[in-house]
Amino acid sequence: MHRNRQTKIVATLGPASSSADMIQWLFERGVDIFRLNFSHGTHETHEQNIHWIRKLEQSVGKSIAILADLQGPKLRVGKFESSEVNVKAGQQFRFDMESALGDSTRVQLPHPEIFAAAKKGDELLVDDGKLAFRVDFVDAHCIKTTALVSGIVSNNKGLNLPSTHLPIDILTEKDKADLEFALSKDVDFIALSFVQTADDIFQARKRIHTKAKIIAKLEKPQAIQNLTAILNATDGVMIARGDLGVELPPEQVPPLQRRILREAHKHNKPVIVATQMLESMIHAPKPTRAEVSDVATAVYLGTDAVMLSAESASGDYPKEAVEIMDRIIFNAEHDVFSVKTTQLTETPSIAEAAILLAYRHGARIIAAVSNSFEAVAQISSLKPGIPILAITSDIKIYHQFTLLFGVCGVYLETLPDANNPIEYKTLVQQIAAREGMVTRTDHVIVALTSDHINSAEFSGMSIVS
Questions:
Q1: DSSP secondary structure letter of residue 282
Q2: pTM of the predicted model as reported, rounded to 2 decimal places
């Protein structure tokens, strides 16, 4: 079931899509990766979804990847006597550690780390930025503020501090329990929320080891400031534009999206563009024209995947959302890859040379034989516009290849001797024909990794036809 597009689709499972029939339907219409959102649901519901996904994968014979998205630290205000209060612009309002129910002048903020990190002049944003407060005074137990806008504050609303680095552990106790569960179920990717520095990745990897690839969610300004270090530390990133648009002025998000994609490509790291891509389809059968352009723009900029959140998890039209996203990607790719070009560096890698050779000889595909996610990502990150057939004998890597742009993964229990080109030629021809990617007269570029195909670098290539 080789897709007719190269950008992948991630769909979040939830009440609207958590059934065997719906998961199969969404996969057949284009979903490549299913996201389990651990901010919602129980371990039992996630386990059932994993069972249905793996059962479907066995029946169709094509890799389906699973991404477990951890909730991360959630900063929330306390509760009010009347459930909500009306705050007026210019009024004084206090956040404190007192457990008493709040009123129109104060509310509990049960996060001591905020009191330790906040400083005069900072802004506190409540309810996804609908309300803003300027910090006038702070000590270990109290933050006095001035409301900058009028609005309603209700129980347990979320709180953001855009300009403040918070000394918070990347994994809460809930996250640790969810992570242990997800790894026990052999998920392929772990998405980390609230990433601020590369050290957050290092801390998480001590628990994850090599059991899953790490996707760093970029949703804090501090993550953008530390982007290069984070890209060096992580296996991939998710541009979480919802939270990023709360913590930063929304007009800054589009250029940041472009910058992140550009930098990630340089580091050979896959990118998922997420949040509000087809937001109106939560309750409407068709997207807005602006949403269509948004998805297409992500494709034009070279994202590896685009993601559906509430659209597929709790929306009224999950099937229609997947179908239209598939069509948008197909048309955008047909436009952008109508002319095939690649930029070579001063000392081209084998991955770059393989793409250039494929263009010159009109090759239909590039076959990468490797047990290295990083090696195949080298080719994928160059966005050749030619399908990449990735052959591996590592079942975990086989699943993880699913995220990479243009990659169609194939799993074999054993691979031929890397020193036997005839055997590789026959193998690649058979697999490519079976997947419907070539005909008998087509050229194929084959790239191999060294050190018994476990290296992150390609060591050679050849042309077969």
A1: G
A2: 0.91
